[in-house]
Amino acid sequence: MAEDLDEALTGRTPLEIINGPLMDGMAEVGRQFNANQLIVAEVLQSAESMKFSVSHLEPHMEQTESAVKGKVVLATVKGDVHDIGKNLVEIIMGNNGYKIINLGIKVPPQDLIEAYKEHQPDMIGLSGLLVKSATMMVETARDFRQAGISCPVLVGGAALSNRFTRLRIAPEYDGMVAYAPDAMTGLALANTIQDADERAKLMASLDEEAETMLAAESVARDNEPEPGEDVPPAQVRHDFEIPNPPDLRLHVLNDHPLEEIFPYINPQMLYVRHLGYKGRFADDLEAGEHAAVELHDSVRRVEDLMLAQEDIKANAILKFFPSNSDGRRIMVYGPDGRNISEEFYLGRQSQRDGLCLADYLLPQSNGQVDYVGMFVTSIGTGVRKLAEKWMAEGQFLDSHILSALALESAEAFAELLHQQMRQMWGFGDSAETTPTDLFRTQYRGKRFSFGYPACPRLEDQEQLFRLLDVSANLRVELTEGYMMDPESSVSALVFHHPDAKYFNLSERDIEQLEQEISQR
């Protein structure tokens, strides 16, 4: 590639090469990605080529020359530690002509305001994974307005939607707010914003969208039927013998072999969700499809690199606790099995099945003690540092694979740990159980993580962390928003009940729960 660039320099200036064939090539990459002809991994490889090319050409440029199309401040909002999506945006936009100022994770509004004053960016990008992060974006937009900031703001994250952006975030801000569901959309929006004519059209389109949504919401509200009567609480059976755990001591697993964890990684989550593979990865790999094989080999190479790192280690902590339920409350007892050590107040479905997680434990009125398991897994503190190092060196694909592998390895460790806990509890899986069976939760009992539909309150992480004495045994901490840092960590409550199943609480159920807890 260096020879081709040197040959091009004989007839063009460096800036002409960058703004001409190189940018045209990246535009074609974007077109093919949007047409589902390329996957994320291939886009990252193209970005690597772009970075190499620009770095090779820069020494030949005049000091006054610049190939920068615009300046963007990026940040994951206060309380949120997830940065894999934000870093992908940095890579894509940074190699399409934008100068990126990446403020990192857990960035409060005041730091963003100071960064705006210092760097005077053309736009700001906000990222966040969970519902609390979406709410924080509303607060951040409000703080921007009070600080007199009105530059375009791009927002993205798993819990966000265009509707939330238009109806909740945008009204709190004096400038444009646009929703970017992925990195390539973010790039397209940035390009539009930097074109004055196209920017005016985009603003008009977003305003029209908001008006349409508001009108539809008004009609829906007027026609909304009265909520039906609440269904009675679920009658969950307890006509079976309670399995006793082998002990009630704290189990600390340090430096668990990653080689034992990797086989428990769900390929659909790793290759399709994180690495953007199109199609059925496992089937394509077995059939020898070139794209699947090449991506699989890249992942295996990064796995080998992970194994060689001293500060990337799989650690976990688990414990069984005597417990009972009382309505929607889970009571966790101390070692004596009588005095309550911690409590969890949980939501119940007002419709559908009337379920609550507390239903899966024996009621206190039964007179017999039940048991619940808890655990935390983590893939260590070295992942972010190494991923950032590789990104700075232009190893974009490896950096992204590493971050994705760490996230899914923490989930895989949770799968492995849950399997071991079932064995310890006395109802282990059969010898014929396959990883696919585990991914489909074809086993007795279930594990539930805070922040998800059945137990959405992240605040309950505090009780779990105290019960497991996490701060003394793992290098994992809770952020102000009760998320775990490092992000490649998983916590869960583990129930043995044979009828346990996953379920969702409605917004109304969650609001009622929050109201009751605030009044306690």
Write a structural description:
This protein is of the alpha/beta class and 520 residues long. The chain has three domains: 1-63, Methyltransferase, Methionine Synthase (B12-binding Domains), Chain A, domain 1 (Orthogonal Bundle), CATH 1.10.1240; 68-215, 3-Layer(aba) Sandwich (Rossmann fold), CATH 3.40.50; 251-256 and 312-380 and 407-518, Roll (Cobalamin-dependent Methionine Synthase, domain 1). 46% of the residues lie in helices and 15% in strands. The protein contains 19 helices and 14 strands. The protein has helices at residues 2-9, 14-34, 40-57, 84-94, 109-119, 131-146, 162-169, 183-193, 196-223, 258-261, 267-274, 281-286, 290-307, 382-392, 396-425, 435-439, 461-468, 470-473, 507-518, and strands spanning 70-76, 98-102, 123-127, 153-156, 177-179, 251-256, 314-326, 329-333, 340-345, 370-378, 446-448, 477-478, 484-485, 489-495. Strands 6, 7, 8, 9, 10, 11 and 14 form a seven-stranded antiparallel beta sheet that branches. It has a five-stranded parallel beta sheet with strand order 2-1-3-4-5, with helices on both faces. Strands 12-13 form a two-stranded antiparallel ribbon. Helix 2 packs antiparallel against helix 3 and helix 14 packs antiparallel against helix 15. The chain is globular, with a radius of gyration of 25 Å. The chain starts with a helix and ends with a helix.
